[in-house]
Design brief:
Four copies of one chain form a homotetramer. The first copy, chain A, is of the alpha/beta class. Helix content of chain A is 32%, strand content 29%. The first copy, chain A, has two domains: 80 residues, 2-Layer Sandwich (Alpha-Beta Plaits), CATH 3.30.70; 195 residues, 3-Layer(aba) Sandwich (Rossmann fold), CATH 3.40.50.170.
Chain lengths: 284, 284, 284, 284
């Protein structure tokens, strides 16, 4: 795998944006591997993800940001620059349910996720054997309503030692406060077991059963202070019938949860997601 | 197509129900074509749909109900008896959007719906040419907030002349009052252009766009007094991305609406739907 | 709707392609509305679709091709230039089945297809009433094995009078010869009622039933001389069970056929499809 | 979970079958939990799965078969009797790919599969650490073309010691001979990484990429002597585009393979599958 640079850009739309950005790359001998752009014509916002091969690029990797800054300023860009050879660090939060954790770790072990996992944080000890089998440090914080503020501070202190780039809530089942979220804005990925915005909050399969829906779903999203209302990254669904009990929905929903969460993690790791107006542009 | 009888049954669950019902059929030389049953173990309710060939059946078609009544009473059954050679009458309500109406009529003309369509009721004249092309009487009622009560009465009077078995709201876009609904309980089928319970009410595609969902859907349901909250018959979804404008969602959603509505009509015509607790059992 | 230009390009991949093309547009004050590109890294082929607003464009619409030619030659491009205000002409071929024709015409009438339909060609008279209802000339050619060569010549002669841009086979059910196809290369769209390459040829639902598959599908593709083996444009599927008879598969498959064919027509009309190596790039 | 009896029946269709079977159950105080039946009207074959609670059943569990035999003989039934409290034994065969094995074992550990796994057989040592983590004996047989006959005999000898009820090929990637299969007829479940009957044999994702399909799939089936041609149990698909490389298809297909294989195992464990004419009836 050759090293490549990835630029994520958003800015007011105007003529000449793609030409200016791709000219910057071409002038310095970069070969574009992937280019996606989108214009929100209602809001007049331009979005772009461009990835180019650094093999022949004439600007040093460490100098690219400096060279790109004048262009970015000219067009009032909000931008991120990433390199494909930089492994992100991903912390995982879990509770008692094993399926999402197993799935994440099996993918990670097989090389599907080019990331490091410095630690797993849990509010129960149940999943420690799984963390042990994969040789990942496992920390237990018995968080509850009464100790939430100080326990989150302790979690943040531990995280500060490990410096994760983002956090994955693999059925963590705890509401995270705004105090915590503001340390990882648009960097906490949750999986909710319904097709949001239907069935926000607790026990969505019970809600789905009570309402008699014919389809259940799962939604991965970035966590914001509004419960289950953050920018949606990915969703998927499966059909159910009157024959499916709540237990059947829980069992079948697990397959959705695993897949939908892992896709969000994959897109995040590949810097394919742009967030704006509480929505996402996902360049797949 | 041989004529067949269809029994739809619900009652408290207990041992011997299936044996008693199928013995009634077998004793009189009926050959079962389809049998589906379901038990809601939480509510302890038994549901059954059984269809049998009448060719050799030793009870006259007109006497079956009388002969079945003692059994029904013994088990406290709620039951319906239908015959496959009875064509139902279906009234259609429309507004300005053509796609659902065209789809229903094309299916009807091809023989997919074994039903008669005595009339189409609209609140705008736009779709009259379509009704004319299919030779179906088309009545316009310029209903609005101020004249709703008396206009619904006029609609009911017209319907009373035609005696439809059920009503299909093919994107009718008007809220129907409880006064009207009580004349056709569990016999008015609506198509709502979202995966309920998400995006109840007006402009669901606009709501979906604003929320940034990655999946849009459509839901057919029986109409009750609670807006978009009646028993769900069928749902389906399709994926969308950030590239889909509201207009794209509207265009793509039409395919869902057509299909999901027509499936509900098909199941209703085949007496495959049982309603209880604001949910449906659909024996497909 | 403002008028826009659409360039479809394929050429050997090299650095600077996107920059050169978008610079051509930006230099002449074109604002890019959509841009998609793809590189087949195995074959080293670059593909691009770019659409830009002509409102401020400083080159006359009629001169754009001339101005673009030097750039195209420099990069050895194969290219097409289209304008969004040019309505394509679409001929439709049918046999006896109405559903695909009805669906195409209802979409066309509602404005979903910005195209003209100069004629419908059939090998049976059954669907003439539908063509009449939509005021489209309907021609019958009683084609069979023995008269195929001369009948196709007669069809071509009639088509030559109407100059359609492309042909849609809406369940035409006749094999078209290479003699005919060569007049409309990559411009004849067929719908096959299976998920190709499974169940090529006649009676695919019967084949699917016999094999006991749990999913049936439909495939739209450009017609080539190899039966059901042309470049696939779009596919979709639906689940079936042991309960689905062949008649059920036929009925349920119609919904797939309609949708999958209409999507292909829509993409073709919007110049979203590039064909190479018997495959398609569809920029959705 | 109360203990229940499950009868799987197939026989020539005739009047009175359901009544006779359910009367047998009701007469002995069995309460039916689930009942599904199906008639193949083309072949005139009746299929049934009925499950009833044994709590009040007046025949001893060990005597049920004896009591049922006269009825079975009267109607020329092929039948199986199972009990929900009997845990099946499942052997797993693997090669080098971990995803399907991980998924099976995680489901098993979570209690989703009520089965025992006496052993895992592999043709490579790669996955031994996974077996070790789950404390399951792992045996390596370096099978190849030249030693296939004697190696299969050795495998059979090992299996004979463990007496598995069925075998799951979790991406085993070896062709099994008829000599082997005849020891486990309709009891070897394979996962093939295509929507069969498309792309039989080796490297189906490469075949799918070359054909340019827009949908890829996976199929679980019982193994027969004809390669990838056995009775299909379950299939599922996912959409792909021109952007998906073969590596992307392999990665994304793994999610299908895991899910489709696990569903087949689940149905098999619950005795929901009847095989006839190289097809399955799956009572879900």
């Amino acid at each position: 795998m050759p090293n490549s640079a990835i630029l994520l850009i958003s800015c007011p739309d105007r003529s000449g944006l793609v030409a200016a950005i791709t000219d910057f790359i071409a002038t310095h001998q970069g070969n574009i591997l992937h280019l996606d752009q989108h214009v929100d014509t209602l809001e007049n916002i331009f979005f772009m993800r461009v990835e180019w091969d650094l093999a022949q690029f004439t600007i040093l990797q460490s100098d690219i940001a400096t060279h790109f800054t004048p262009l970015a300023e000219k067009f009032s860009m909000t931008w991120q620059l990433h390199f494909s050879d930089t492994r992100l660090k991903m912390a995982i939060f879990v509770s008692k349910e094993a399926h999402a954790l197993y799935d994440l770790l099996a993918r990670w072990q097989s090389g599907e996720f080019a990331a490091d996992i410095p630690l797993i944080i849990a509010n129960h000890p149940d999943l420690k054997p799984i963390a042990d089998a994969f040789n990942i440090p496992f920390y237990i914080f018995a968080i509850n309503k009464d100790n939430k503020a100080e326990t989150e501070q302790a979690q943040l202190a531990l995280l500060a030692q490990h410096q994760p780039d983002f956090i994955v809530l693999a059925r963590y089942m705890q509401i995270i406060t705004g105090e915590f979220i503001c340390h990882y804005p648009q960097r906490i990925i949750n999986i909710h077991h319904s097709f949001l915005p239907a069935f926000i909050g607790a026990k969505p399969y019970h809600q789905a059963f009570a309402r008699g829906v014919k389809i259940i779903g799962a939604t991965s999203h970035y966590v914001t202070e509004d419960l289950d209302a953050g920018p949606i990254i990915e969703q998927d669904v499966t059909r159910v019938t009157h024959k499916d009990s709540i237990a059947d929905m829980v069992r079948r929903g697990k397959d959705l949860e695993k897949t939908v969460l892992s896709r969000a993690v994959y897109y995040h790791l590949q810097h394919r997601i742009l967030v704006y107006n509480n929505k996402t542009v996902v360049f797949i």
